[in-house]
Amino acid sequence: MPYSQARYWMLGVIAVILVGFWPSYWATVTDVPWQFHAHGVAASLWVSMVTVQCWTSQSKRQLDLHRAIGKASLFLFPFLTAGLAAIINRQSQNWLAGEPLHLLYGPSFMLGTMVAMAAYVIVFYRAMKFRRKVWVHAGYMLSTPLILLESPLSRAGGFFFPPWHVTGPADFPKVMASIEWSMAIELVIIAIIWWRVGDRAKPFLVTAALIAVEMLAMGFAGDVALIRNLDTVIAHMPAASVVLTGFLIGAATSWFGWQAGKRPVVGPVAAQPA
């Protein structure tokens, strides 16, 4: 089976998530807004699911379990996109309220999360569509943890790398720099995968292109008037409608991806005339 070492990589991803989000989420889990829980629970379940899939894919005796968990991902994915929509909702509310960090980067954060959601939709749809092509399917599924790794990676890096360390509002410009550099690290990881497995890593190149779009969007589109106006519009929308939209996008992705990957139905062969 492909990417036999991916299970260890996923353990590293979990470690980065735990360290990066410890101060802002895990250590204050009872005091954070509900949008953080919507995203945090769904994303944690998704990363755990991908990790288990990495282990079960390496044993023929566990392939039935692997397939069963894969089908369960169809039901989990709408909650993943709904959680991202909840974060977009919260980011827009913070932008409207004038929260200092979001006053500086709010539209960039919103647009980056939107691009990340679109990236998840594209990658998961293709993972389901090509689920019978083992290397392609594995590449797309393993791409999903990369899409938002920049968030915990930039936070964790701040604990050990002084140029990323934020102690107050004066350091807020470091936040965007650390995010952009973290996405650059994601691209380096993809380059290493490509170097190791060659053309079989093409799904990761799709993910790399999407990450590059997110980098550009966050770095240059935050001051565009249209984006800022959109942020304000979303902030005034009912939270339930924003989250429901995210859920429906995820549900549609699961449905159409599963349908696209079905085996073609072969009709009965017509009898030939004597």
How many whole angstroms does the radius of gyration measure? 20 Å
Q: Which regions have little confidence, pLDDT < 50, spanning 5+ residues?
A: none
Q: How many strand elements?
A: 0
Largest sheet: none
How would you describe this protein?
The chain has 274 residues and is mainly α. The protein has one domain. It is 75% helix and 0% strand. Helix 5 packs parallel to helix 8. It is globular and about 65 Å long. It starts with 5 loop residues before the first helix and ends in a 14-residue tail after the last helix. The model has no long low-confidence stretch (mean pLDDT 90).
Quickly describe the structure.
With 274 residues, this protein is mainly α. It has helices at 6-20, 34-56, 63-97, 100-129, 134-147, 150-160, 173-197, 202-220, 225-236, 239-260. It has ten helices and no strands.
Give me the secondary-structure topology.
Layout: H1 6-20, H2 34-56, H3 63-97, H4 100-129, H5 134-147, H6 150-160, H7 173-197, H8 202-220, H9 225-236, H10 239-260
Question: Any key phrases for this structure?
Answer:
10 helices, 274 residues, 75% helix
